[in-house]
Design brief:
It is a single chain. The protein is α+β, with helices and mostly antiparallel strands. The protein folds into 2 domains: about 100 residues, Alpha-Beta Plaits (2-Layer Sandwich); about 130 residues, 2-Layer Sandwich (Alpha-Beta Plaits). It has 5 helices and 10 strands, in the order βαββαβββαβββααβ. Strands 1, 2, 3, 4, 5, 6, 7, 8, 9 and 10 form a 10-stranded mixed beta sheet that branches.
Length: about 260
């Protein structure tokens, strides 16, 4: 049968999601824990690979197995072998045609940013940081230039392996709680470093270094050199994919609720 898991993790201490020879990735840790629990190797696929330092609040993975276990056992049993900063949130049997990446109709990310004259301490590794005040109105105006289908080559990392730079952003929201900013992005898919490169541009606009309409020029340029430098991974969270309702998979977990 095919089983899907929802996974949360603090990515600070890992070299991203995808398995590496070092073994210091989230995928490596998950598969090691599954192998101990199931007493057999289980290879996982994920909904969205995250970079080093990027966090996951609801990464979705799937794997195939003949092993019969109660669903709560997949959660508790796997968590017993995982490090403290990675936890399975839920487990569910899914149809054979389900694919955690291919079946996703959209992906969601959040970026949490601390605006403070002093760098983060308790939140180190979990928030981005700016020390200059930012203009919310200018940021909201700039965000409007990103909504819809565009060629996002200006926000694409050189090592990106996507077949096309054309993506559709359906939603960008920004909110503020005290000195914390929270940006949410939803799109059919994202390019490598796309959100971190967008964040670099939104911060430049918010701090008055660029006008809001500059972002339209960056999009039109289709050239990475036109955009701002790539922003820190520290405040980036993969909120998870969305699927068709008939799969019955969660869209929210308790892990969401701690970030501003």
């Amino acid at each position: 049968m095919r089983i899907a898991l929802g996974l949360s993790y603090n990515g600070t201490g890992y070299e991203g999601w995808q398995s590496q020879l070092s073994g210091n990735t989230v995928q490596d840790q998950l598969e090691k824990a599954l192998r101990k629990f199931a007493a057999m190797p289980l290879r996982t696929l994920c909904a969205g690979r995250t970079d080093a330092g990027v966090h996951g609040l609801m990464q979705v993975v799937h794997f195939d197995t003949e092993l019969q276990r109660e669903l709560p056992s997949w959660v508790r049993g796997t968590n017993a072998f995982l490090p403290r900063d990675i936890a399975v949130q839920w487990a569910q049997v899914v149809p054979e045609d389900f694919h955690c990446r291919g079946s996703a109709i959209s992906r969601r990310y959040a970026y949490v940013l601390l605006e403070s004259p002093v760098r983060p301490s308790v939140e180190a590794g979990r928030v981005g940081w700016v020390y200059r005040p930012m203009d919310e109105t200018a940021i909201r105006t700039a965000m409007g230039h990103l909504i819809g289908e565009h060629d996002f080559s200006s926000f694409r990392a050189a090592q990106c392996q996507a077949k096309s730079p054309v993506k559709t952003i359906s939603r960008i929201e920004v909110s503020r709680q005290g000195c914390y900013w929270r940006f949410e992005f939803e799109a059919n898919a994202f390019l490598h470093h796309m959100i971190r490169n967008i964040m670099g541009c939104l911060v430049a606009v918010g701090q008055g270094l660029q006008a809001p309409d500059w972002l339209a020029e960056v999009v039109a340029a289709r050239n990475r050199d036109a955009a701002a430098p790539t922003f820190s991974p520290d405040g980036l969270y993969f909120l998870g994919p969305r699927y068709e309702d008939h799969y019955g998979l969660p869209t929210h977990t308790a892990a969401y609720d701690w970030i501003p």
